Amino acid sequence: MRFIDWRILPLLALLYSFALIDRINIGAAFTAGMGKDLKLTVSNRYSIATCLYFVPYIIFQLPGNLVLRKFGVRNWLTFSVVGWGAVQLGMGFVTTWGYLTFTRILLGAFEAAFFPAMLYIISTWYKRHEVQKRIAIFYLISITMGGVSPLLAHALSLLDGKCNIKGWQWIFIIEGAITLFLGVISWLFIPDFPDKNRFLSPEQTAFVLKRIEDDRGDSIPDKVTMQRIKKHLSDWTLWAYGIMFMCSTLPAYAQAYFISIILRDMGWSKTKALLLSAPPYGPSIITTLLFSWLSDKTRHRAGFILLQAIMCIVGLVLTAFAEDNSVRYLGIFLTNAGNSGTIPGILAYASNNVVSQSKKSVQTALTVSFGGVGGIIASTVFRTQDSPRYLPGLGVTIGSQALLLLTLGATNIHFRRLNKLSREGSLLKPLEGQTGFLYTL
Question: For the chain (length 441 residues), average pLDDT per consecutive 10?
Fold first, then answer.
């Protein structure tokens, strides 16, 4: 299993890191001069450019997951990586905010299938209470790269004037070229599902499949049909996971897109704003790993999600209402430290309480598509006219954490009740159709 960890997680995390970087570097490019050159400060142009990315990103999540096995993991995901890499490189040559918005829409279309596919693949390799640590490691490598993104963007912006290309253009060109190179790597090494993998021996593959079968009974995929898709979509808890994920991604996207802009409006220079955007991601590595390890060890999810959401709320309140800019900056640290861990926590909570690969395919796509809704909200509620405090945006973000806690409470009460009835033998059929299955609280 350690060999599988090393074979699967680093590569998937590296690929998603550049998906995240290519998605959020628009904020750093804005600070580096794109905002002025493309007149993005006029009206809500910047918010529109960031927001419209999420429309195709949401629309193509579920279809992308449903055809993953049909086209093959290597073919489908390599197509996705090369597609968004080419678009990212092309963004370095746009001349108007309209062309920028168009390329953002294309970027969302190509990236849509990638993240839910990654979660789907990872969840099929591990037992239920092994998965959060793996998702956390996968996500942390990605978010760490996201934290490094402003520093990388600052370094690339120093190429300003080279070959008559502006600094913000170099950000897109070089990061897009790196993504295209990773597309080649993904074609060669990206992992498949356990039952179709080619890097394990037949004996090792049988061992992995037996572990999954003993844990939840879905090691072999069931056929995806329209009737099954409709049945899965009728389960209200899948929509609840999506709402919780939306609430957890809203603060993440808000910081990714607006942290350097908010810091600049606090009075720091363009360079300092970019450099100060990276440190808040540091403590989140410790908190996310700690809570994920505890969550897997105790086989419990909801309590740890609750604690981290409260930490996030405290940080948001400080950033919104503190008078001193140093205290507001501390709030960004706390927001990240709390919010980063809720994302893998919610993904693990959802994955643990779903049985059958067809339902898992629908669940991961639906959950992640709601994350795109969080991105739309984040990109529209933080408006340039609300500078320098951005109180409406921060207020909506605080409200999202309250909604997260309410939805978490509803699902936890529901699962607790069903587990009790199952233990008493009061149910007509086993939970999730699997004998002996109990929901993870």
Answer: 90 88 85 88 84 90 88 91 95 94 95 89 88 83 73 86 91 94 91 89 93 83 86 95 95 78 78 80 86 92 96 94 89 91 92 89 92 87 78 92 97 96 90 88 92
Token code pair at residue 232: 């899965």
Question: What's the one-letter identity of residue 256?
Answer: A
Buried residues in 114-128 as b, exposed as e (16+ CB within 10 A): bbbbbbbbbbbbbeb
Largest separation between any pair of C-alpha atoms in the chain = 74
Q: 211 near 205, Cβ under 8 Å?
A: no
CB atoms under 10 Å from CB of 320, counted, come to: 18
Distance CA 103, CA 92 (A): 10
The packing angle between helices 302-321 and 236-265, to 10°, is 30
The candidate with the shortest Cα–Cα distance to 216, out of 342, 305, 131, 118, is: 131
Please identify which residue in the block is written with the tokens 């003993």: 214
- pTM for the model: 0.84
Please tell me whether the peptide bond between 388 and the residue prior to it is cis, using omega within 30 degrees of 0: yes
- Say how far apart CA 334 and CA 48 lie, in whole Å: 28
- Other residues' Cβ atoms within 10 Å of the Cβ of residue 298: 11
Among 411, 289, 400, 428, smallest CA distance to 352 is for: 411
C-beta of residue 367 within 8 angstroms of C-beta of residue 238: yes
Answer for the pair 108, 57: CB distance below 8 angstroms, yes or no: yes
Instruction: Report how far apart, in Å, the C-alpha atoms of 143 and of each of 183, 304, 404 are.
Output: 20, 20, 21
| Residue in the structure block whose two tokens are 């550049």 | 18
Q: Please report, as a single letter, which amino acid is at residue 94.
A: V
- HSE-CB of 395 using CA atoms within 13 angstroms: 7
Q: Could you tell me if 222 and 59 are in contact, meaning their C-beta atoms sit under 8 angstroms apart?
A: no
Cβ-proximal residues to 104 (8 Å cutoff; 6+ apart), any chain: 26, 49, 50, 52, 53, 91
230 burial (CB, 10 Å; 0-12 / 13-18 / 19+) is exposed
Domain definitions of the chain by residue range:
2-433
Please give the C-alpha separations between residue 18 and each of 79, 85, 278, 365, 373, in angstroms, as whole numbers.
15, 9, 16, 20, 21
8 A C-beta contact, residue 30 and residue 84: no
Tokens of 153: 């963007």
State which CATH number among 1.10.3720.10, 2.160.20.10, 3.30.10.20, 1.20.1250.20 fits the domain covering 2-433: 1.20.1250.20
Burial (CB count <10 Å: 0-12, 13-18, 19+), residue 328: buried
